[in-house]
Amino acid sequence: MIKVDSRLVRSCWEKIELAQYQQEYVAVFYHTLFQQHPHLRVLFPSDLKAQERKLLETLNQVINGLQYLEELKESLLELGRKHQDLNIDPALFEVVTGVSVVALKRVLDSNITQEELLAWEQAFRAVSAIMLQGYSGEQSRFGRQPIAIIK
User: Fold this and answer.
1) How many CA atoms lie within 13 A of 93 on its CB side?
2) Would you tell me how many other CB atoms lie within 10 Å of the CB of residue 47?
3) Helices 49-64 and 114-134, axial angle in degrees (round to 10)
4) SS3 assignment, position 130
5) What span, in angstroms and rounded, lies between the C-alpha atoms of 54 and 26?
6) Structure confidence by residue, pLDDT tens digits, 4-53
7) How far apart are CA 29 and CA 41, in angstroms?
8) Looking at the chain, which terminus has fewer C-beta neighbours within 10 angstroms, N or C?
């Protein structure tokens, strides 16, 4: 079971918002993703502004609605289907989870606790699990696990 503490995840996002680090977070996210996995760069447009905006919008929607994850499920399933249509390797969902944690740690540095980092990681795992269900026929180690949201 994937357990997600929505309060801790929102706390992380609030720290990012209060410090106005949203743009920095997505910039660090993509920089880290391409640094660790340079072969992925070709999957994205040369100008990342629109992609960064999409990521921020999705993060806002999911993080602020995390305690209502069931209500977000259909849009996350659709997002998983879109990734399948783009022929994105489902193994990259795990990569994105790891990169998201690295980016959060780099941006918030000493202003984040291990407990918050773990909650952030679990939230990304939960979202990935739902997206992978939309990625038709994909079986993953997270794709069929139940998810418990702690409010």
Assistant:
1) 30
2) 8
3) 100
4) helix
5) 10
6) 899 999 999 999 999 899 999 999 999 999 999 999 999 999 999 999 99
7) 13
8) N
